[in-house]
Amino acid sequence: MSATILDGKAVLATIKDELRARLAVLAEQGVVPGLGTVLVGEDPASSWYVGAKHRDCAEIGIASLRHDLPADSSLEEVLAVVDRLNADPACTAFLVQQPTGLDEFAILSRVDPAKDVDGLHPVNLGCLVMNEPAPLPCTPVGVVELLRRYDVPLAGAEVVIVGRGLTVGRPLGLILTRRSENATVTLCHTGTRDLAAHTRGADVVVSAAGVPDLITPDMVRPGAAVVDVGVARRDGRIAGDVHPDVAEVAGWLSPNPGGAGPMTRAMLLSNVVAAAERAAGVPVAPA
Ligand SMILES: Nc1nc(=O)c2c([nH]1)NC[C@@H]1CN(c3ccc(C(=O)N[C@@H](CCC(=O)O)C(=O)O)cc3)C=[N+]21
């Protein structure tokens, strides 16, 4: 038996089609959303991610406002670009690609929360904690959307998350424990005494640790869903957290690449369209 592959690339294509319909409604009102990006330096992976986001936008009719800054830019210079995008009516939503090597909290805090496509502004994260509508962080909400589209049961399920980072593990725990998802979450991390004891009891394992091959077949209950969000690099290629042999044990597997990455981009596009709908007074499709 081999796991059903949770195909993030295919779902990204489907979501692009769904967003095209919403963009057509906005276009009738003369609204063309614009995604802004701020990239500091020339890290090849970061440059690829930003390029991919703009290609996605071009494909479905979202305008691009791209700001590439030199690697030695100061915090003040980055914040000045953030201020310009906050004030620019052509910019519906934007992000500062992380990491920049600069004060992340200062940068995230400076973004207008209404234009925060990453859902990582402290106010938007606070809304998530308080269960108020706000943009949601793209990678965790993308993981949930991927599981939902393949009918992986979440209500009442035991979900083990490996990793407590700001962009994946911590917000994913908050999203999955909302009444609408209703999962039971265990948030594991490098201080967890016996990781395998937790993962073996899980219906769903989401690994976002950045440790290649951390999740081995003996750690997975037969039939469980396993989502690989790890993005370590080995010889320039992505090395996921999930050992390839897990595919023989799991019921569902979100591979890496091809799973959470494309879903992150899908949710980014969805957040841009939702921000434009909110700004234009068009009813926002439910997330
Ligand atoms: N402010 C900010 N927002 C982000 O959303 C953000 C960020 N900073 N910093 C870095 C991470 C990483 N990230 C990815 C996006 C797409 C893929 C993706 O599409 N990957 C493809 C191809 C990967 C490849 O082959 O290189 C895949 O998984 O199939 C991966 C990772 C967004 N991030």
Structure write-up:
This protein has 287 residues and is of the alpha/beta class. The strands form 3 sheets. It has a 6-stranded parallel beta sheet with strand order 1-11-8-7-5-6. It has a 3-stranded parallel beta sheet with strand order 3-2-4, sandwiched between helices. Strands 9-10 form a two-stranded antiparallel sheet. It has 2 domains: 27-113 and 261-287, 3-Layer(aba) Sandwich (Rossmann fold); 138-256, NAD(P)-binding Rossmann-like Domain (Rossmann fold), CATH 3.40.50. The chain is globular, with a radius of gyration of 19 Å. It is 39% helix and 16% strand. The mean pLDDT is 97. Bound molecules: 5,10-Methenyltetrahydrofolate (GUE). 5,10-Methenyltetrahydrofolate (GUE) is lined by residues 48-49, 52, 95-98, 118, 138, 238, 256-258, 261-262, 264-265. Pathway: One-carbon metabolism; tetrahydrofolate interconversion. InterPro entries: Aminoacid_DH-like_N_sf (IPR046346), NAD(P)-bd_dom_sf (IPR036291), THF_DH/CycHdrlase (IPR000672), THF_DH/CycHdrlase_cat_dom (IPR020630), THF_DH/CycHdrlase_NAD-bd_dom (IPR020631). This is Bifunctional protein FolD. It catalyses: (6R)-5,10-methylene-5,6,7,8-tetrahydrofolate + NADP(+) = (6R)-5,10-methenyltetrahydrofolate + NADPH; (6R)-5,10-methenyltetrahydrofolate + H2O = (6R)-10-formyltetrahydrofolate + H(+).
